[in-house]
Protein backbone atom coordinates (compact mmCIF):
# COMPACT_ATOMS: atom_id res chain seq x y z
CA UNK A 1 0.00 0.00 0.00
CA UNK A 2 1.33 3.43 -0.91
CA UNK A 3 2.19 6.06 1.70
CA UNK A 4 -0.58 8.30 0.33
CA UNK A 5 -3.18 5.56 0.78
CA UNK A 6 -1.92 4.74 4.29
CA UNK A 7 -2.15 8.42 5.25
CA UNK A 8 -5.65 8.68 3.80
CA UNK A 9 -6.94 5.56 5.55
CA UNK A 10 -5.49 6.62 8.91
CA UNK A 11 -7.29 10.00 8.94
CA UNK A 12 -9.65 10.60 11.88
CA UNK A 13 -12.40 12.28 9.81
CA UNK A 14 -13.68 12.00 6.25
CA UNK A 15 -16.06 13.63 3.83
CA UNK A 16 -17.47 11.98 0.72
CA UNK A 17 -18.04 14.45 -2.10
CA UNK A 18 -20.68 13.04 -4.39
CA UNK A 19 -22.32 10.93 -1.69
CA UNK A 20 -25.71 9.75 -2.89
CA UNK A 21 -28.92 8.63 -1.22
CA UNK A 22 -29.26 5.95 -3.92
CA UNK A 23 -27.60 2.77 -2.66
CA UNK A 24 -26.55 1.54 -6.12
CA UNK A 25 -24.41 4.66 -6.69
CA UNK A 26 -20.70 4.60 -5.85
CA UNK A 27 -20.98 7.74 -3.74
CA UNK A 28 -23.35 5.86 -1.44
CA UNK A 29 -21.21 2.72 -1.42
CA UNK A 30 -18.08 4.67 -0.45
CA UNK A 31 -19.92 6.53 2.31
CA UNK A 32 -21.40 3.29 3.70
CA UNK A 33 -17.99 1.57 3.55
CA UNK A 34 -16.33 4.37 5.54
CA UNK A 35 -19.12 4.43 8.15
CA UNK A 36 -19.23 0.63 8.23
CA UNK A 37 -15.51 0.48 9.01
CA UNK A 38 -16.07 2.64 12.09
CA UNK A 39 -14.79 5.87 10.60
CA UNK A 40 -16.33 9.30 11.12
CA UNK A 41 -17.56 10.45 7.72
CA UNK A 42 -19.79 13.21 6.41
CA UNK A 43 -21.74 13.05 3.14
CA UNK A 44 -21.38 16.01 0.77
CA UNK A 45 -24.26 16.54 -1.64
CA UNK A 46 -25.74 19.94 -2.52
CA UNK A 47 -29.25 18.64 -3.29
CA UNK A 48 -29.82 15.90 -0.70
CA UNK A 49 -30.60 16.55 2.96
CA UNK A 50 -29.91 13.09 4.40
CA UNK A 51 -27.90 10.05 3.33
CA UNK A 52 -28.06 6.75 5.21
CA UNK A 53 -29.46 8.53 8.27
CA UNK A 54 -26.72 11.17 8.30
CA UNK A 55 -27.25 14.86 7.58
CA UNK A 56 -25.79 15.75 4.18
CA UNK A 57 -23.95 19.01 3.64
CA UNK A 58 -23.67 21.06 0.42
CA UNK A 59 -19.94 21.91 0.74
CA UNK A 60 -16.90 21.18 2.89
CA UNK A 61 -17.25 24.66 4.43
CA UNK A 62 -20.71 23.68 5.74
CA UNK A 63 -19.45 20.70 7.76
CA UNK A 64 -19.34 20.87 11.57
CA UNK A 65 -15.60 20.10 11.41
CA UNK A 66 -12.92 20.15 8.71
CA UNK A 67 -12.35 16.56 7.60
CA UNK A 68 -8.74 15.47 7.28
CA UNK A 69 -9.53 13.40 4.18
CA UNK A 70 -12.03 13.72 1.33
CA UNK A 71 -13.05 10.98 -1.08
CA UNK A 72 -14.29 12.49 -4.33
CA UNK A 73 -16.87 10.74 -6.50
CA UNK A 74 -17.95 13.56 -8.82
CA UNK A 75 -17.60 14.46 -12.49
CA UNK A 76 -14.23 16.14 -13.19
CA UNK A 77 -15.77 19.60 -13.60
CA UNK A 78 -17.28 19.28 -10.10
CA UNK A 79 -14.03 17.79 -8.76
CA UNK A 80 -12.29 21.12 -9.48
CA UNK A 81 -14.70 22.98 -7.19
CA UNK A 82 -14.50 20.30 -4.47
CA UNK A 83 -10.69 20.48 -4.55
CA UNK A 84 -10.72 24.29 -4.37
CA UNK A 85 -13.02 24.06 -1.34
CA UNK A 86 -10.79 21.39 0.23
CA UNK A 87 -7.69 23.55 -0.20
CA UNK A 88 -9.47 26.58 1.31
CA UNK A 89 -10.78 24.53 4.25
CA UNK A 90 -7.44 22.96 5.16
CA UNK A 91 -8.12 19.34 4.15
CA UNK A 92 -4.91 17.26 4.11
CA UNK A 93 -5.71 14.24 1.90
CA UNK A 94 -7.76 13.76 -1.28
CA UNK A 95 -8.72 10.59 -3.08
CA UNK A 96 -10.23 11.06 -6.52
CA UNK A 97 -12.12 7.89 -7.24
CA UNK A 98 -12.01 6.44 -10.78
CA UNK A 99 -13.81 8.83 -13.10
CA UNK A 100 -13.48 11.85 -10.79
CA UNK A 101 -9.86 12.62 -11.70
CA UNK A 102 -8.98 16.04 -13.04
CA UNK A 103 -5.39 17.03 -13.86
CA UNK A 104 -5.94 20.70 -13.07
CA UNK A 105 -7.45 19.87 -9.66
CA UNK A 106 -4.71 17.36 -8.87
CA UNK A 107 -2.00 19.88 -9.68
CA UNK A 108 -3.65 22.61 -7.58
CA UNK A 109 -4.00 20.26 -4.61
CA UNK A 110 -0.40 19.06 -4.80
CA UNK A 111 0.87 22.64 -5.11
CA UNK A 112 -1.14 23.46 -1.96
CA UNK A 113 0.60 20.60 -0.12
CA UNK A 114 -2.23 18.07 -0.03
CA UNK A 115 -1.68 14.35 -0.44
CA UNK A 116 -3.49 13.30 -3.63
CA UNK A 117 -4.51 9.85 -4.83
CA UNK A 118 -5.62 10.05 -8.46
CA UNK A 119 -4.13 6.94 -10.03
CA UNK A 120 -7.37 5.05 -10.69
CA UNK A 121 -7.26 3.07 -7.46
CA UNK A 122 -10.59 2.61 -5.68
CA UNK A 123 -11.15 3.08 -1.97
CA UNK A 124 -13.80 0.33 -1.96
CA UNK A 125 -11.19 -2.25 -2.92
CA UNK A 126 -8.87 -1.22 -0.09
CA UNK A 127 -11.61 -0.96 2.53
CA UNK A 128 -12.75 -4.47 1.61
CA UNK A 129 -9.28 -5.77 2.53
CA UNK A 130 -9.30 -4.27 6.04
Automatic annotation (TrEMBL):
Q: Which InterPro entries match?
A: CoA-bd, NAD(P)-bd_dom_sf
Q: Which GO terms describe its cellular component?
A: cytoplasm; cytosol
Domain annotation CoA-binding: ranges: 8-100
Protein name (database record): CoA-binding domain-containing protein
Which organism does this sequence originate in? Rhodopirellula baltica (strain DSM 10527 / NCIMB 13988 / SH1)
In the record, what lineage is assigned to the organism producing the protein?
Bacteria, Pseudomonadati, Planctomycetota, Planctomycetia, Pirellulales
Amino acid sequence: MSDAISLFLSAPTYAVAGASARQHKYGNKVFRALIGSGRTAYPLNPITEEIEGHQAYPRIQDLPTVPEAVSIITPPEVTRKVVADAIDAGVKHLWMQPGAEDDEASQAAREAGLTVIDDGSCILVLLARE
